[in-house]
Amino acid sequence: MDSEEMDSKRKEGSSSSSPDGVDISLIRWMLSLTPSERLSRALQEMDAWFREHPESKLRPCAEDLQGPGRSSLMTCHGPLDLLGPVAGDRGYGDLIESSERIELEEGVDVRLLNLETRISMKEETGREKDRAVLPILRATLRERH
Q1: Domain span at residue 138?
Q2: pTM confidence score
Q3: What DSSP string describes 58-112?
Q4: Tens-digit pLDDT profile for the chain (145 aa)?
Q5: Is residue 41 part of a domain?
Q6: Residue 4 lies in a domain
Q7: Is 125 inside a domain boundary?
Q8: What is the β-pairing status of strands 78-83 and 108-113?
Q9: Backbone torsions φ then ψ of 48, nearest 5 degrees
């Protein structure tokens, strides 16, 4: 569904709104989508494209977002990196316990992997760029403890 279809759903929803103005039909439609479909539609709204293909502005689809690794995107709001399952095929559910909630500003919280887990994951991947940053991360961990 593109933005025109969403506008149509919003208009349809105006006749099926709750007493407090919540658009029930739009909510039902959004809940019928899979998480990757919702993400794909949000990325469409943000005019996202893969940074690796600046000349063609190749756009992601839902299938592109389901695999492992990183999707490096550019949006109308700036760069955005999305992570699928990472080192050892661990996904969000596996890593949430190893994360910390950080408040960027009032009302804007993000979750970041704790330093121990980031070090472990970089050791597991064994990529040159990950090995290069390990001494810095380990020194930071020592300073914190």
Answers
A1: 88-145
A2: 0.53
A3: PPP-GGGGSSSSEEEEEETTEEEEEE-SBGGGB-HHHHGGGEEEEEEETTEEEEE
A4: 455 555 554 444 444 555 556 667 766 766 777 777 888 888 999 999 999 878 888 898 877 777 777 788 999 999 988 877 776 677 778 888 999 998 988 888 888 889 999 999 889 888 898 899 999 999 999 998 8
A5: no
A6: yes
A7: yes
A8: unpaired
A9: -80, 145
